[in-house]
């Protein structure tokens, strides 16, 4: 880093710090852009400071917990299949879809899409390297996928045993998720990643548990109602279909997972972390 770049970075850090302090001194409870940005950077740094084993275990927990959304999705779909057509059922799923996200986020497990922008901000702020970003992303993704696969294997057995849903329900949901072409899944995943990055940003400005639950519900229900592709819960949906149905092949799973992960990463890293950070930096006087 050159001397000029160091001076610029010093001005940015000072401005973030001063903005956060000014907001705390204010009688208003509304957080400033700078205070939210500081909170996000600090939270991202906390994750970087954790041991890899801790990150993977917490991420695996998130993959397991997100499976409760899938349990409710399948149960609702099966329970109402004789009452509504499939198009309506896929819209009604929005009411139960947020449950797993609420469990994960309030329980502070590490979910890739919720952490994407958080982990990118320290890199933009020159506190971490791009290499460290990809390394920690790989740990989080690995944990999320392992947890999701374990939960999928559990649910495809316990669901039919408890008569909560059948294998046909699993197949229908998996085919619905993988039906769009690759470019559609990719763009859809970018939008989902964008929303999840915004979710993380909005949660930094909310302090009460009820308001946090409402924010999580609104964002994730929007993703479900519009059919946007989320790589982690989608992992459970598509893997379950691949295991139980010949209609979903391994290549379908790889195609979905690859482009959903890539899209989610771009959505959170670019449309939230980069744009929010640059919007603040461009307002900093470096003279």
Automatic annotation (TrEMBL):
Protein keywords: Membrane, Transmembrane, Transmembrane helix
Principal subcellular localization: membrane
Compartment(s) of residence: Membrane
Chain residue ranges for the region called Disordered: 1-34
Residue stretches of biased makeup (Basic and acidic residues): 1-25
Keyword Magnesium: no
Bilayer topology: Multi-pass membrane protein
Protein name (record): Membrane protein
Positions of transmembrane segments: 55-80, 92-112, 133-158, 183-202, 214-233, 253-275
Gene3D superfamilies per the UniProt record, alphabetical: Glycerol uptake facilitator protein (1.20.1080.10)
PANTHER family: FORMATE TRANSPORTER-RELATED, INNER MEMBRANE PROTEIN YFDC
Claim: Transmembrane is one of the keywords in the record: yes
